[in-house]
Every structure is written in C-alpha cells, then in structure tokens.
Description:
alpha+beta, 5-stranded antiparallel sheet, 4-stranded mixed sheet, 6 helices
Amino acid sequence: MEPTRPTLRVLLEDLGLPLPPLDHPLDEIDHPLLTKARAQFAADEVGHERIRAIDDRVVFKVKVQRWRGAVWPDTSIPWLIAAGTREDGSGDDFYQALTRDAQAARARYNAENAKPLSGRTYVGHLLPTDDDQKRPQLEAGTRLVRRLIKVIRELARGSLHDGHEHAADLPGFRLGIVVRADDGNETYVAVKITGSIPGDLVAVILRHVPGCDPELWDTAVRLPERSLFGPEQAWFNVMEPKTAARLLDEDV
C-alpha cells in the first residue's frame, strides 16, 4: 500500500495549504493529520474505525489533536478525502458535518439522475479526480530524478576513490560510472548505460554528473578497462578539479 495522500481539494480547501511543486510529493507534506494518516494506514493489519454513517463507500476515521479526517482506502492508495477540526457538542462536529454533506449530495444525485442511489449517503464528489490520479505519476518521475542525482554522486565518488567502474541497477537499466584522476592530468569521466532508457532521461543523467559541463559530453566507443558490450552505450567528459576534490572529501 502506498502512503496516504490528500486529494487536491482537501489540500487546498480543507487544510488550507498551498499546492507544492512536483518535487515535493503530496504524501510527504508535513501536517499533523497527514502524518497521522500515513502512520495509521502504513500497515494493513492495523485496525481502523469506520465512519458508519457513510454507507456508499467504506471510509475510515483518522484523528489527531483537534484534526479529524476521512480516509478512503483505494486499491493501492489510501486517500484523505475530507478533513476538518473537532467541535465537541456543536452542530459543526466534523463527522456530523461530513454525514450531512453526504446526505445532501445523495439527494442532489438522485434529483439529477434517472437511476437513484439506494443508500443514505453519497461521497462520490469527494473521491480522487483525474487530476488527483495523475499527480502520483508525475511525482514518480520527480522521485526517480531525485534518486538518480543521489546515485550518480555516490557512483562518481566511489569510482573516484578506486578508479574502477561503480554501477547501480535502476528501473529498466543499469548505470555505471568510471572516474579516473591522475596526478597532473585531467579527471576523466565515463557514464555507461545498459538497457532501454529514453533519451530525455539520458540527458538528465549526464546533466547531473558533478563537475562536468553538460555541453561537453561525447559518445564513447570503449571504457577505460574494456570495450563496450552489445547492449551498452557510453559517454565521456572531464570533471572540474575542485569538484573532484570535494567528492573525495565527502563521507561515504
């Protein structure tokens, strides 16, 4: 199960938070209710309290401090579909207000559709929209780039220390980096990719090799220690000396 995430409506309207850029996934937002929901729905075996008044969907309660929420567990992502604050003893209690809203939504639905709903409530208008469903896919690309940047730096640093190729397996391909630094000479860098990878991702990789001018990469026909194998492709460049020195000084 993926981490619990809010719908865009909940984020903007119920929680009053701004929409972050794609490099800040919605399931990483720091908010008491979201933190509680992620922890509560992280394990399938944890029991959850159902909102019994909602009968058209299985929706669970999440509570922390004065915050209250409703989580709909989709097949892979638990969605926070409504949120608010507790107002004990008043008609503005979150779960009472949610029930009234769902009952009113059912009445509107039945008035507008030939086939009426049989239950007492309707929360379909609160469920994730197409934009909600697209957001995780867009964030996944950002997550891959963040992981790539970290892996690229680790591989470059490791190879700079021993002069041999360091490699890592990533979704759909294997990435290898060789860095050779000789006293009095330029620091040579080779990037090797094995497997199927789109060209725009190749550009991302080459752009994030530390200390290398992205405009100076050229294709390589061999690596320092051997020729290329059939499914491999490679590029070479030189690394800026100060960057190489900083990499050597970093903790592994």
